[in-house]
Amino acid sequence: MARKPQVKQLGRNVSLPRDPDEAELERVANPHADTHYAARFTAPEFTSLCPVTGQPDFAHLVIDYVPNAWLVESKSLKLYLASFRNHGAFHEDCTVAIGKRIAALIEPHYLRIGGYWYPRGGIPIDVFWQTGTLPKDVWLPDQGVQTYRGRG
């Protein structure tokens, strides 16, 4: 019989964290740790606040990773990403901080995050960060978000 993952948020009513530092990002054991494969999370409605104006900033985030022993538990990831809604930070800070936090938690073979930010002030800012080396036997598709010509 499979062991239930030791998570605190899955299957429970959990309040939205007020801040990313308060959010609890959780992991579960990878049942296929002996196999290289890619997993993708897409958050097309990511929101944070401009740290200067307090105005909302919107992004389409794509997180690809090749897990090792651990997987990101998706409900905790959803709550973590939503905790940025009232958090003031620049686009680069949000994108890289999310990538680093996930990588520190699950220690994947490889992780990349693409932050495709909608323009404010007439300039879109796309931010990319990666860690690790993509195993040669893993197929990793393009992130599928065009360079800015209008997002949709």
From TrEMBL:
Q: Which UniProt keywords apply?
A: Cytoplasm, NADP, Oxidoreductase, Queuosine biosynthesis
Q: Where does substrate bind?
A: 72-74, 91-92
State which pathway it belongs to. tRNA modification; tRNA-queuosine biosynthesis
Q: Which SUPFAM superfamilies match?
A: Tetrahydrobiopterin biosynthesis enzymes-like (SSF55620)
GO molecular function terms noted in the UniProt entry: preQ1 synthase activity
Any single Gene Ontology cellular-component annotation: cytoplasm
Subcellular localization(s) per the UniProt record: Cytoplasm
Gene Ontology terms describing biological process: tRNA queuosine(34) biosynthetic process
Q: What EC number(s) does this enzyme carry?
A: 1.7.1.13
Cytoplasm in keyword set: yes
Kindly identify the residues recorded as the active site: 50, 57
Q: Which reaction does it catalyse?
A: 7-aminomethyl-7-carbaguanine + 2 NADP(+) = 7-cyano-7-carbaguanine + 2 NADPH + 3 H(+)
Query: Where is it mainly found?
Result: cytoplasm
Leading EC class: oxidoreductase
**Chain spans, region Disordered:** 1-22
Q: Which domain of life is it from?
A: Bacteria
The similarity comment for this entry is: Belongs to the GTP cyclohydrolase I family. QueF type 1 subfamily.
General function of this protein: Catalyzes the NADPH-dependent reduction of 7-cyano-7-deazaguanine (preQ0) to 7-aminomethyl-7-deazaguanine (preQ1).
Q: What is the protein's name according to its record?
A: NADPH-dependent 7-cyano-7-deazaguanine reductase
Taxonomically, what lineage is the organism?
Bacteria, Pseudomonadati, Pseudomonadota, Alphaproteobacteria, Hyphomicrobiales
